Amino acid sequence: MPYRLLIRIPTVLIVVSKMLFVFCLFAQAQAPANVPVPPQVEVARLRLKLYQGQEYPLERQTLDSKIRVTKARIDSLDRQLEEYQQFTKFKHSGPLFGQLEFVKVAKVEANEDLKNLTNEKSLLERFHQDRVRLMQLELLMLEQGMR
Q: What is the value of pTM for the model shown?
């Protein structure tokens, strides 16, 4: 009985298999051979790949690190300010006036740095998709110019 199953392969299956095989051969014959890609197209592809895989994540990570360091610096300056202000209660002079002013100016500088870094990160994230799309369009124009 198992021999009968091997012998009775439906004819439709054989015909469909042959047609699929012929179609695959035809599709391979129609596919262009290894056409060399112009350097401009390859450069555009690599630029897009590098931006998405390396430049954008690295910029974002660097900005995150700078923001964390700046916040830590602001916290440190706040603690120094509190510590120095306890010595400004003298009647005729403040023994740490110069250091107190230095810390106040450093705190203003750190706050401005934090604001600038936060804005830079926000702009980087906001225009990331536009920059990627611009690179994709440049690549598309180069590929279409190749045809």
A: 0.67
